[in-house]
Amino acid sequence: MKENTRCVIAGAGPGGAMLALLLAHRGVAVTLLEMHKDFDRQFRGDTVHPSTLEILDQLGLAEKVHQMPHSKVYGPSFNTSKGLFQPFDLRRLKSKFPYILLIPQAKFLELITSEAARFAHFQLKMGANVCDLIRENGTVRGVRYQTSECEGEVRALLTVGADGRHSRIRHLAGIEPVKTSPPMDVLWFRLPKLEAAADPGSGLMGSFRGGRILVVLDRNDHWQVAFVFPKGQYQQVKAAGLEAMKRGIVELEPRFAQHVDSLRDWQQFTLLSVESSLCPRWHQPGLLLIGDAAHVMSPVGGVGINYAIQDAVVAANLLAKPLLDGRLEERHLTEVQRQREFPTRFIQGFQAMMQKHLLEPALASNQTTIQVPAIARFLVRVPILRDLPPRLIAYGIKRVHVDG
Ligand SMILES: Cc1cc2nc3c(=O)[nH]c(=O)nc-3n(C[C@H](O)[C@H](O)[C@H](O)COP(=O)(O)OP(=O)(O)OC[C@H]3O[C@@H](n4cnc5c(N)ncnc54)[C@H](O)[C@@H]3O)c2cc1C
Q: Is the pTM of this model over 0.90?
C-alpha cells in the first residue's frame, strides 16, 4: 500500500500523539504509525504535569482528563534523619492546575488520538512497525512499515521520529545520542490497597535505607511503587530472590508488610534501566526527532512525558504553516531544536545535580535514613527560592503555549 501525506509520525507515545493532534487541529494532513496494536502496554509512567494540563486546557481537553479516574500529587515527602522533608509544594504555583495528575498513560493516549481522529485528514495505523526511511536526493521523504498483514509506505514532506528511547528512525538516520549514566536503576510495581492495613500516607512519599530508595505514589485503587537501587545491580537483586525483595520493601516501608504478599512473580515488576541522553542533532532534511528519540530524561522529577509533549507543541507551532504551505525547509527544523535543546539541557543538568548530591550518597550509604544538607533545609524556607523547584518541575525553564 502506498500513501501520501504532509507529515508522517513514527510512534504514538505522548510526543507523537500530541504532535499528530496539534498538526491535525491546524489543518495539516498527518499519518501516525504505532507498532503496537493497542496502547495498553507495560507501565511507562502516568504523570501529567501542570504544563501539560495547561496545554490540554488550551485544547479544551482539561475537563476530559479530569473526568478519568485519577489521583493528584502536590509534591514529595521524604523520611529523613530529621523527620519528614518536603522539598517543594506545587500548591504554591500560580496555575489552574497546581498538581501532577496521575492517569493511566493508555487512557491519555486514547483520548489524544480519538480527538485527532475527529479530523478527516488524520490517520492512525496501529500495529504498523516502521522499518525503513525513504530517501530521495539526500532528503527523507517518508517511511516504509510492516503490519501483520502487509507492507506499506507513507510518503511525506516531513517524517518525525517520536519512537522513543530505542528509536529506529534515529538509528536509520545514523544519529547517535550522547549518553550519561545516572547512578540508579528502578523496578516499578503495584501493590494493592488493603482495608485492614495501615496506609503509608497519600501523595508521593520516599524512604531511604541501606543503599535502597522506595518511592510510593497513591493511585486511588492501588499503590504505584518504585524500588530504586544502584545502577547495574538488577541481576543481583533478582538473584537474591523474591522473598529478599519483599523484605527489602518492608524494611523501607514497614506499613507494606501485608501488601507485599501480592508479589508472586518477577513479571509483576517493570525494569526502568535509567539513562539520560541528548542527540547532538535532532534533524536532517525532511526528518525531525522529538521526545525520548531526541533526549532520554532521568526519572528525577518524572518529566519525560512532559518534555516529549512540550517538544510536540513547539514543533507544531513552528511547522504547521510551512507544512500547510508545502514550503518546509531545514531551517524550520533547526529552530525546533534551538527552542527545545536549552530547556532540555538545563533540566538534565538539574537532574544530574540532584543525582549527585541526593541520590548517589543515599544509594552508596548503609545508613537507615538519609541526611538532608542543612543548606537544603534552609533554602526551602526562603520565600523566593522555595518557589523555584516547583516551577522547574511544573514547566521547566520556559512555559510552552499552543499557538493559534
Ligand atoms: C518503566 C518506565 C517508567 C517511566 N515513568 C515515567 C514517569 O513516571 N513520568 C514521566 O514523565 N516519564 C516516565 N517514563 C519516561 C516516559 O515514558 C518517556 O519519557 C515518554 O513516554 C517519552 O514519550 P515519547 O512519545 O517520546 O516516547 P514513548 O512514550 O517511548 O513512545 C514511543 C512510541 O513509539 C512506538 N514505536 C517504537 N518503535 C516504533 C516503530 N519502529 N514503528 C512504530 N512505532 C514505534 C512505541 O511503541 C511507543 O508507543 C518512564 C519510562 C519507563 C520505561
A: yes
**145 Cβ neighbours under 8 A, 6+ residues apart:** 33, 125, 128, 129, 130, 131, 151, 152, 153, 154
Whether residue 390 is predicted with pLDDT greater than 90 in this model: the reply is no
Shortest-distance Cα residue to atom 26 of ligand 1? 291
For residue 389, give Cα distances in angstroms to 77, 89, 316. 14, 9, 28
Residue ranges, CATH 3.30.9.30, the chain: 184-272
pLDDT band at 363 (very low <50, low <70, confident <90, very high): confident
Distance from C-alpha of 3 to C-alpha of 42, rounded to nearest angstrom: 31
Going by C-alpha positions, the residue among 83, 149, 150, 112 that lies closest to residue 22 is 112
pLDDT, average across residues 101-107: 95
CA of 289 to the centre of ligand 1 (A): 14
Q: What are the distances in angstroms from CA 39 to CA 43, 110, 114, 126, 280?
A: 11, 7, 12, 9, 30
Fold of 2-179+275-395: FAD/NAD(P)-binding domain (3.50.50)
Share of the chain above pLDDT 70, in %: 96
* Minimum CA distance residue for ligand 1 atom 35: 11
Pocket of ligand 1 (CB under 6 A): 10-16, 33-36, 43-45, 47, 129-130, 162-164, 168, 188, 270, 272, 291-293, 297, 299, 302-306, 308
Tens-digit pLDDT profile for residues 180-210: 878 889 999 999 998 766 666 666 777 778 7
Is the CATH number of domain 184-272 3.30.460.10?
no
Please tell me whether residue 262 adopts helix, strand or coil conformation: helix
Helical packing angle, 14-25 and 105-116, nearest 10°: 20
If one counts every other C-beta atom within 10 angstroms of the C-beta of residue 76, the result is 20
Q: How far apart are CA 287 and CA 158, in angstroms?
A: 6
Q: What is the 270 CA–ligand 1 centroid distance (Å)?
A: 13
Rounded CA-CA distance 286/173 in Å is: 11
Residue type at position 403: D
